[in-house]
Specification:
The chain is mostly beta strands. The protein contains three helices and 25 strands. It starts with a strand and ends with a strand.
């Protein structure tokens, strides 16, 4: 349903009811609706005397979406399209039940994942619409996300189904701002955009460490961002006698083992560090360096900030444009034996930066630990030493063109003839040590291209 009143008030209301056979008959149907409204304030009588405001609109919307894409491993199939049903092992070409063994416990209470999206903002045009922009606040909450919860032993070896038990929120601000103007034969424009988004797991498996779901260095943990980086903290590279004294101090002050009455080895988990090795921080303060000293060191690979800027100008037949794009507030754990790790292995290459930046006796400004055989993992534990900042600013495109005057193109029976040259992805400003901050590790980077071309319009 759409409605408007006096070209000042606008709105829309929609409703849909969907069914999916992936849920039991009792939970098959989902109801989803959305509504939006807008108020064109600039058309009100009290705004007519404000000449510099050409357009001002307030807007708000709220809507729901459903997701039934819930495929899980089945018995003999790669995917299970009916996770609400119990399934049994089968054997033989004829599909005979094998002793009625339950292989997958269905959950008839499964239902739709639901996403609720709220948006509030305003659009504006000022100074004869030379300055235009939008500002939007959004809040996207997804409820009833399907996850695996701990299974009671009574289920034996059978796989139990996921349950509608998690909630995730994404909220933030989106902005655009532009200025367009012309002075005689010279015209120009500046257009920018900016997005900030914060992600949070509102409900998962609890806030204690038993509720953490691990995927290498990434975790999902209630109260934190999805795929937060959960790592050890590297205090320093041990390079001097003073640094080495810290190791001995930890050994001297190690806690007593209640069972043996002797001091424990505080470095038993990863090995006692020597000169050239990483010294990890004792985060929990128990006097022992182990995996319990991991903590969240970043919100993970999803950027908090994304931005862009487009500049364009034209004078008579010449035109010029440049596009900037970037991101910030994003870090990833990246350890690669060929790129940033001080390990050696027969047949493997060693990165020049690692070879030149490694610690050797007498050095106090090393960037990387000493070289060790790859089997020795004291310096290759998952720590923030290998945490990379993937913030970047790219000049995505630069283009310069020239269009022949119409007096010439008419004689050629052409509407327009334009010559141009452009550079694509040529300039990237970043501290990331991989090939390209927009891709992972040593995967092939974005292609650079230089183009010379002609546009012909008849």
């Amino acid at each position: 349903v759409n409605y408007s009143y006096n070209d000042t008030y606008f709105g829309n209301i929609s409703y849909r009811r969907d069914a999916s056979s992936r849920f039991s008959p009792d939970n098959r149907w989902g109801n989803f609706w959305a509504a939006s409204a807008a108020w064109m304030i600039s058309r009100e009588d009290f705004m007519q005397d404000i000449a510099w405001i050409n357009m001002l609109k307030l807007k708000a919307s709220f809507g729901q979406q459903g997701n039934d894409d819930i495929l899980y491993p089945g018995v003999d199939l790669d995917k299970n399209y009916y996770p609400w049903m119990d399934q049994y092992k089968m054997t033989g070409a004829n599909g005979i039940f094998a002793d009625g063994t339950l292989s997958y416990k269905g959950n008839p209470d499964l239902t739709w994942e639901s996403t609720y999206m709220t948006n509030v903002g305003f659009d504006f045009g000022l100074v004869n619409n030379k300055l235009t922009g939008t500002v939007d606040y959004f809040n996207k909450k997804t409820k009833d996300i399907l996850i695996n919860l701990p299974a009671p032993d009574v289920h034996g070896t059978a796989s139990i189904p996921k349950q509608n038990s998690a909630t995730v929120t994404n909220q933030g601000i989106e902005m655009t701002l532009g200025w367009q103007d012309q002075i005689g034969d010279f015209s120009y424009g500046v257009n920018g955009n900016f997005t900030f988004v914060k992600n949070k797991v509102n409900k998962f498996k609890g806030t204690d460490k038993g509720g953490i779901s691990y995927d290498g260095a990434n975790i999902i943990w209630e109260g934190h961002s999805i795929n937060s980086q959960y790592l050890l903290r590297a205090d320093r590279i041990i390079q001097t006698d003073a640094d080495l004294a810290l190791v001995q101090q930890m050994i001297d002050n190690a806690p007593i083992d209640e069972k043996t009455g002797k001091k424990v080895n505080p470095f038993a988990a990863f090995g006692t560090p020597q000169k050239g090795d990483l010294l990890y921080k004792d985060i929990n303060g128990d006097g022992i360096i182990d995996m319990d000293d991991r903590e969240i060191v970043s919100d993970g690979p999803n950027p908090k900030f994304q931005f862009g800027l487009n500049l364009n100008a034209a004078y008579k037949g010449f035109d010029f444009s440049v596009l900037f794009q970037g991101q910030a507030g994003v870090k990833v754990y990246w350890q690669n034996a060929l790129a940033n790790t001080s390990t050696v292995r027969f047949g493997y290459q060693l990165n020049k930066d690692v070879a030149e930046g490694r610690w050797v006796e007498g050095r106090t400004d090393a960037i990387y630990p000493r070289l060790l055989q790859s089997q020795n993992q004291i310096n290759t534990q998952m720590s923030d030493f290998y945490l990379e900042n993937k913030a970047f600013l790219k000049i995505r495109n630069i283009q310069l063109g020239y269009s022949l005057p119409k007096s010439i193109t008419k004689k050629m029976q052409l509407e327009r003839l334009r010559f141009y040259g452009s550079l694509e992805n040529f300039f990237t400003f970043t501290s990331y040590r991989g090939f390209d901050p927009e891709i992972s590790g040593l995967a092939y980077p974005a292609m650079k291209s230089a183009v010379l071309g002609i546009n012909v319009t008849f």
